[in-house]
Specification:
single chain, alpha+beta, 6-stranded antiparallel sheet, 8 strands, 44% helix, 14% strand, elongated
């Protein structure tokens, strides 16, 4: 799936010669998805100067310079937090997710002096916790999308100089600002349950997003919301497509159309012409299940 629109996915095993150690690549991909920017892993690998294991076994992956370069190449603005101050870093995180900006975070992995670090993304808030998207969760974590308290996040930012060191806090965060695209970061309180529980929705998120952006011609926040159109015509669309495409199960149609609805609501995507939008959505839905 490297050259296909990417969703929210775990990264391959570390020993994968092409994508091992690709937490930086995946973090940027996930952050761009949150900002409503469809992307492919192949493209991100190039833009953020990813080095594969087969090309550099002892220096593979993506560093902060590569991620910042990739952010800029996607037309976004990186905002950096690089300090040892707990309160300033928490305020930075809170401020940027409140503005709808995802935050890529550099965190510990082994929690010892040999720790080489790891990239993950904060994608918003759910109730009183932070939504974390981690393509390679630590051994005691299992979920791609999980919830952290600030205390838990803070502990992932402890670093060690030697085996006798008690550790120190070091915070390196990159918020991604984009004023030209929608963002679902502010919607995470509504979105978290669907996104965390449905693996297929996560995996194919990039396709749903790209289809809907084509339908709405990259409009968002307007008066005619795609989500309202889908809700209003949900039954008629699924019933008609089920009639004309007898091989497609109506339950599958309902599931796929509901996924389009979730994505459309997440970004508040809008259209100018209702009829054309309904035709396009129906065509995309049929295409999804036929091909």
């Amino acid at each position: 799936m490297e050259n296909e629109f990417y969703g929210f996915n775990y990264q391959p095993d570390w020993y994968d010669l092409d994508l091992g150690g690709s937490c930086g690549v995946h973090s940027l991909s996930h952050a761009l998805n949150l900002l409503g920017i469809p992307n492919t892993i192949d493209d991100i690998k190039i833009k953020c100067r990813y080095i594969s294991i087969k090309d550099g076994f002892f220096s593979n992956g993506t560093d902060e310079k590569g991620i910042i370069a990739g952010i800029k190449k996607y037309g976004c603005n990186p905002i950096i937090n690089d300090n040892y101050n707990v309160e300033k870093s928490k305020s930075f995180l809170e401020k940027n997710i409140s503005l709808g900006y995802p935050v890529i975070m550099w965190v510990n992995w082994d929690e010892d002096e040999e720790d080489t670090g790891h990239w993950l993304v904060c994608g918003g808030r759910y109730k009183n916790k932070y939504v974390i998207i981690d393509s390679a969760p630590a051994e005691d974590e299992t979920e791609l999308i999980d919830l952290y308290t600030w205390e838990e996040l803070k502990n992932r930012c402890v670093w060690y100089d030697n085996e006798h060191d008690e550790g120190y806090y070091g915070f390196y965060f990159i918020a991604i600002e984009s004023n030209q695209t929608p963002s679902c970061v502010k919607q995470m309180n509504k979105l978290f349950t669907s996104l965390s529980e449905d693996e297929d929705l996560r995996e194919w998120w990039g396709y749903y997003l790209n289809d809907l952006l084509e339908v709405c011609d990259y409009n968002y926040g307007g008066s005619i919301q795609i989500s309202d159109l889908i809700k209003k015509h949900f039954n008629s669309v699924t019933q008609l497509l089920s009639f004309w495409f007898a091989d497609i199960d109506e339950n599958d149609l309902e599931y796929e159309l509901n996924n389009y609805l979730i994505v459309a609501e997440a970004y508040k995507l809008s259209v100018n012409k209702k009829e054309e939008a309904l035709i396009s959505i129906s065509s995309s839905l049929a295409g999804t299940l036929i091909y």
